Structure formats: C-alpha cells, structure tokens
Predict the structure.
Amino acid sequence: MSYQCAAIAEGLVCGAGETARYVLGTFRTISPVLALRWLGGQALWIVDRLGPDPYLGHLAELRAWYEDRESQRAAHAHIKTGAPLLVVVPDADCTYTLSVRSMAQAPATAFRCQPREGSRSGIARCTPYDLPTVAAPCGTCGG
C-alpha cells in the first residue's frame, strides 16, 4: 500500500470574488510513519510562516496536533487501516488542508477529521467528506 500526501491552501482571490486552491506540496511514500512525518513538517512550515504568534488561534491548534504524541499515534493507526486523514485548519483568509490517503482507496470515501471539544489535537471524529480538488496556483494566499 502507498500513501499520497498533500498540503493545500484555499482562499479568495483578491478582487475577483473567486476561490482558488494552491498545492503547497505533495509527497508519496509506502510508509505511514513517513507520511505523518511529512504532514507534520508541512504543519510546522505553515505555522512558522503565517502566524504572528503561532501559539494563538487556529495555527496553535495545528501546532498542538503535531506536537501531541497521542494524536500522532491515533493518526498513524487511522491511516494504516487505509482510511484517509484530513487535517483542516482555517486562517484569516485561507483554509489549509493537510491530507494523507491510501492509493488503494476510492476518493469518495474520504473523511474530514474535526477536533473534539476540549481537545488539543486536530483529530477527534471523522465524517464523510469529498477530497479537495487540486488547481494550479493563482493569486491567493500569497502563492
């Protein structure tokens, strides 16, 4: 089994009133451990570059998800079964989606993981969700 990972930013195009998606990065591996390591690196990259104070707001939730070892173990077990993992974090003008999915899985069965109440992690319960489509970069989120 192999895993496809992606980091995507989605936001409004200034002055156009349209939404665009940017592929910030992709990665493919046969290891769920390497998939999560890559996702964690992307999470920290986003937090370090976007937050004036990366310990406040939604960016803090993304950092907390990465630093919480229990959440990482749960995410590892989740994707190892072949189930997809989406970590969706809104920011002021963009939404960032970090995803891992098994290449053997049909895209229509993807899940969105949302934080549970009082959780430091970005993962709690999973609900059906369509995988994001990927478009070429155009002028949103500074891309």
Remarks:
- Residues 32-50 form the longest helix (19 residues).
- Confidence is low (pLDDT under 50) at residues 106-143.
- Strands lie at 3-12, 19-29, 85-90, 94-102, 111-114, 125-128.
- The first strand starts at residue 3 and ends at 12.
